[in-house]
């Protein structure tokens, strides 16, 4: 049993962007030639979660975008933040962030629609976001010329630590009531 748990930990650790329970089950069947039920697998994963809650562990097992990933505990976020600051190549420009936000909230969306919202060309931003795999081509629009439709990717979900678009902050969560124009009637 302990050997299976260590194999599951190794599988999750070696997975770049997280791994689904179905994929873990498949890998275990192929690698160890064992048959494991969904409930048995979940029980073993729960044991791994409990094991990594110890103060001696720097990693914890999290579910993001319906996939398991080992992440550093929040205690070490400042240290990891400093590491990230040294990785300038990962930074997105303000224009790319604006483009990404538009795609996230309006997906699927065409490049023309993004440009109409931003008021400027977004060719470079879209290309950078595709290179970083934060967005993906979601198909073609039915409008004239059949332009490409863009949506966020699984990498976007992983990067921002959310399970889906429904987890994005809503406008009402961001804008404060104090930011109203006009008189308040009581």
Structural account:
With 186 residues, the protein is an alpha+beta fold. It has two domains: 2-75, Winged helix-like DNA-binding domain superfamily/Winged helix DNA-binding domain (Arc Repressor Mutant, subunit A); 88-175, Arc Repressor Mutant, subunit A, CATH 1.10.10.10. The protein is 48% helix and 13% strand. The protein is built from nine helices and five strands. The strands form two sheets. Strands 3-5-4 form a three-stranded antiparallel beta sheet. The chain has a two-stranded antiparallel sheet with strand order 1-2. α1 (2-14) packs across α3 (38-51). The longest helix is centred in the first third of the chain and has 14 residues, at 38-51. The protein is globular. The model has no long low-confidence stretch (mean pLDDT 88). This is SMC-Scp complex subunit ScpB. It comes from Sphingobacterium kitahiroshimense. Keywords: Cell cycle, Cell division, Chromosome partition, Cytoplasm.
